[in-house]
Fold each of these.
Amino acid sequence: MFLRVILLLTLITRLAQAQIPAGFTPLFNGRNLQGWHTSRTSHQGTTGNFYVGNGAITLKQQPYGQGGVLLTDQKYRNFELYLEVKLDSFCNGGIFLRSTESGQAYQIELAIPGGLGDLLGEQLRISQGAKATNVEKVWKNGWNAFRIRMEGAVPRITLWINDEEMYSVAQPKNDAIAGATEGLIGLQAHWSSTYSPAAKAFSMAGSWKPGAAHRFRNVAIKRLD
């Protein structure tokens, strides 16, 4: 029985890797979160429920209201990132590029409804954002393929969704903390703590539906330097 399970897991991994574009190296083995870790310094939360289910990285809140950021162990400078994404509605998350350990990064927004595919900053004021205005034309129910190219000390960021280019934006300057030119890849589950009148805290009460998840598979990278 144990041998059958091992063979099945091996087959699942091989099938997943077969869908990764040529020239890309897997960042996710399809079985566990080896090569990844949860940020322990992110304001999004540090106790998120991040696990592998049905061959996909799955992000949920835990307890409700507390999200977090799942980060690669390695840093990357110039790269193309490929990953397939499946999003539950009424959840806010993102793909972080050149992230710090605490989750300061250029971000591709993941939100339905919301700014799906838009380029913005997470705890980072970026010079030039972008809107994925054509995303509704190519978006599918279920899994969708994202390819993101980031290159240059002053970066240009290009996004394709399901092989359709959404935008290619050159930043006028390097917006990263201390001018960093490399960082971690991150997957974010947004916090959704409720507003506290006494503390005058910022309300994100509607940013994550209870029990919902963001899922990622066939995560792979191609270094460009």
Amino acid sequence: MTQYAFAFDSNKCSGCRTCQVLCKETYGLPLDNLYRRVINYQGGSWKQNENGTYVADGMFGYFISMGCNHCDEPACVAQCPTGAMSKDPETGVVTTDHDRCIGCRSCQMACPYHAPAYDEAQHFMTKCDMCAGELGAGSTPLCVRGCRDRALDFGTIEEMRAKYGDGQIETAPLPANMTRPNYILVAHRDAVPTGSTAGAVMDLEEELD
């Protein structure tokens, strides 16, 4: 079996969210439904020195671009009561059969990476399928082609490991590795491990406050 995988180098990512927006616009995704999202993780604070000037105190920040990881042991597939979630034996891509999906959200609750999303209008679950149409045409996923920083890459898991090594998937704010995700994360030089409380996820609203 061929197992396709994403790779992401957090050191290269500027947080422009082109991957996220391109995916959302191309597939016409509804509000609050993302196949790929860019996570902004920040830590540290400002402190006032003896001169009254505020200086950075252990501040750090990095971005992680995250879609479905098409895991070797996908929790969404294991927990789906109708068999709507399945892993393709030829490509390793995890897909959703909308005709079989009853929208119970079991997959959403089971996935440690929160990849499946519920489509309120159509009453079924949706998720990243690695741009199946693009793969079928011999191309690569749109998010990878659109990444201006060249932080995202795509290929077989063997190709990605040969280029980037095993990576470090257990990087905050991501969870512990429980599903063997096919996602090579080259952790940022300032990254902290899974479970760390040194930082917090900042969403767009918080960034604009």
